[in-house]
Write a structure and sequence with these properties.
about 350 residues; alpha/beta; Rossmann fold; 7-stranded parallel sheet; 3-stranded mixed sheet; 12 helices; 12 strands; about 40% helix
């Protein structure tokens, strides 16, 4: 007799911006989801995830468990009975502790991939980043064959090292690994702003008069969720998949579009010449002494000015069949959270 029960996907970090959208997308497409958070008793980590199942009327297809990816124990039991693993849990920060960011990325990868093998899961979809692709060499289209070689920021080092580790473990453990490499992820549906969106509020409030022309690329979080599901579903999918449909833009482009779409905001209309970026770094430092969030350290500025965001998403379009949310939707869905 055929088994008509839905396929069950284990998703780590379901409270995160990407993770909770993956949950909704999977539930919308008939999957059962077992998701992990670090604290089941913290409503900020669970309520918005459970809300997806409630709105879709499928509470019976969502299960949540407690687990910290830094702990090795318990993951095999959690993954037992699942058909796939989507590993999204990490620390996304350009300012956090280097050791904490690296430990979460590398230890978490090790624990979860070993647990997947022990639980009999073969297909794993792993959330990496274009941070592991890098922004060099400048002027060249960067596809899935390119790897980051810059070591100036703990986050980019962590994403690069952990993805290399994932590929090594997948070969050792005979796992069918598919990796998603999104660029800056925009869109609503987050509880705590990530570095990809946390500058929106200050920009809208007019907390800086001009904005640097730092190279950026963006993708909507709904597209990132779809990409994870399609990477699991498409049997011939293999390797890495860059998600950067809105490439070769700048931070100034984003801020100007915020203002154009929302004229009542105070988002900066003027961009800063590259020669004056050190002044912006100093202005950001002064703002931090006045209690504002710091975004622009010298290391971040050097990292962002050293290359470009000329990425190709052609593989994701061809193999995964992705069609993208437009740029204005990326901007406005993010703005709406802060209005």
């Amino acid at each position: 007799m055929a088994d008509d029960s839905p396929k069950r996907i284990f998703v780590t970090g379901v409270n995160g911006h990407i993770g909770n959208h993956i949950v909704r997308d999977l539930l919308e497409h008939g999957y059962a989801v077992r998701g992990s958070v670090r604290d089941l008793n913290d409503p900020s980590k669970t309520d918005h995830v459970r809300a997806h199942a409630t709105k879709l009327g499928c509470e019976d297809r969502l299960e949540m468990v407690e687990g910290d990816v830094l702990d090795a124990d318990g993951w095999t039991a959690h993954l037992s009975g699942c058909d796939g693993l989507f590993h999204t849990a990490t620390i996304y920060s350009t300012r956090g502790s280097a050791s904490e960011i690296l430990d979460t990325a590398t230890k978490g990868t090790t624990h979860l991939l070993h647990a997947a093998a022990e639980a009999g899961i073969k297909r794993v979809v792993y959330t990496s980043s274009t941070a592991a692709v890098g922004t060099s060499p400048k002027g060249r289209v960067k596809d899935e064959a390119v790897w980051n070689t810059d070591t100036s920021l703990p986050y980019t080092v962590a994403k690069t090292q952990s993805e290399h580790l994932a590929w090594s473990l997948a070969e050792e453990l005979e796992l069918d690994l598919r990796v998603i490499n999104p660029t800056a992820v925009l869109g609503g549906g987050f509880v705590r702003p990530t570095p990809s969106v946390d500058f929106f509020q200050d920009a809208m409030a007019g907390n800086y008069p001009v904005v640097p022309k730092f190279p950026m690329s963006v993708v909507h979080v709904r597209d990132v969720a779809r990409a994870h599901r399609r990477a699991f579903e498409v049997d011939e999918a293999e390797g890495r998949f860059i998600l950067a449909p809105h490439a070769n833009i700048t931070l100034a482009t984003i801020c100007k579009r915020i203002r154009a779409l929302n004229p009542t905001t105070k988002a900066p209309k003027f961009s800063l010449p590259n020669t004056l970026v050190p002044l912006a770094v100093f202005q950001d430092w002064v703002g931090s002494k006045l209690g504002r969030q710091r975004y622009l350290t010298r290391a971040v500025a050097k990292n962002m000015m050293g290359g470009d965001t000329n990425y190709s998403s052609a593989k994701a379009e061809k193999v995964l069949g992705l069609e993208w949310e437009d740029f204005d939707t990326c901007i406005q869905d993010t703005v709406d959270v802060f209005l």
